[in-house]
Amino acid sequence: MQAPKWSQQRLSLESLVRAVLVLLLAFACFKVLQPFLGALLWAGIIAISAWPAYNWLRGKLGNRSKLAALLIILLLAIAFVVPLTFMAVSIADFVPSKSVISGGLGSFKIPSPPSWLAGIPLVGDQAIQLWQTAQTDLPGLLEHFKPMLDDVGSWLLAQGAQMGKGLVEIMLAMVIAGLFLVAGDTLWSGFGRMIAKLGGHMHDDLPELVARTVRGVTTGVVGTALAQALLTVIGVAITGVSGVMLIGFLCFLVAIAQLPTLIVWAPIVAWLAFKGQTGMAVFLGLWGLLLVNSIDNFLKPYLISHGARLPLSLIFLGVIGGLLSMGLIGLFIGPTLLAVAYRLIGRWLNAPAPADPPDEQPAAPEQK
């Protein structure tokens, strides 16, 4: 017997109401969590990346989960939050001191232009005139560019404020990551069950694939960039050049975007040579070539040996896109999200199709 038509309509209406209520609840939860979305994503990435070290330390501490999580988060805070805090302060301090910098440049004596400069096609004569103007009246030339310098200073001040907001997000993410580590076993079990419901026939190794990819990006890409930035800071500090932390941050940005770090330290080498500090220029050049650049060749393959080989263009787009869309914290979230999506899509495309269930043959009629 078929159900009455009005009963079917009632069931359809109830299903529609339930679906609308679930969507409204999901939207309301998203709006509540939206201000913390970046911190939550970064906290999850930190927890997945630090899980092996946390597990080892928890075993050494007699299974004291909270103490192990606290020590891990403190170490990560020293590695990330402290250098970035110095960076934000350095950018903020640059703006009030730009008049001092201009005054110092005004008293700087510029040598005569080199003879080869005039031979540059199209722009050689203009370059010679600009050089001679700077040689004879550098304060007046700087005064001409003063509005541009003011705009640059205002932009840097805004970036320092944005970096301060990013630091707050990163510190919040560190606290949440500690809570994730303490409840890691329960959370990972729930994540596995969710993947089993969503992943279909290939769900078995998806959690481990996600974890491996996240660790490959955070240790191989971010870890190598931090090491290169630290070496750059040490080398530049030895030469006595000011703005060491700002230079280190620029090196970190360049390294995490998979670009050569000589973009940062090579101009400093040229500046030292131009000022006559040949010994320091040679030292920084060798330091950059033998240590800063070379560490990328053996440290990154070692750190991502258990992770995922990822296209450099993917990491570059993730860094730039994450920085533009999420600010400072997007530097870490952007490449990680793209890497996970890349690996999941590749796993889905390469997975064998599920076997079709055998066709059921109709039963033969019984012989009478």
Automatic annotation (TrEMBL):
Q: Which domain of life is it from?
A: Bacteria
Q: What is its main location?
A: membrane
TM helices/strands, residue ranges: 15-33, 39-57, 69-92, 170-196, 217-238, 244-266, 278-295, 315-342
Entry keyword Membrane: yes
Subcellular location as annotated: Cell membrane
Q: Does the keyword Cell cycle apply?
A: no
InterPro entries named among the record's database cross-references: AI-2E-like
What membrane topology does the UniProt entry give? Multi-pass membrane protein
Family label: Belongs to the autoinducer-2 exporter (AI-2E) (TC 2.A.86) family.
The protein in question is named AI-2E family transporter
Which species is listed as the source?
Crenobacter oryzisoli
Q: What is the lineage of its organism?
A: Bacteria, Pseudomonadati, Pseudomonadota, Betaproteobacteria, Neisseriales
